[in-house]
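Section 5.1 Outputs to date
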Amino acid sequence: MQGIEPKFHTSLTSRVEHYRLLTEAMDDPELRSTEVIAQISELRDLYEEYLLNKKNLEKSIKNYREYHNELRKKLTVRFRELKRKAREK
């Protein structure tokens, strides 16, 4: 799985901020694109959703690993017991 590099997102958001400041300074209504503003907002929402999903995925992976390790340990003990009983017979 490949994630979104924070640097990748930050570089674009900083460019967006510079764009916004420049269009506000020029005070020209034609330069202010509502489409770009909507896309910026959508991008922020998508990034926040990504971060939430990433956090949940990391939590799920951690839980899976813990459960997996505990089960592996229990099975190891049970296999040893079975082998010991098989040798005794």
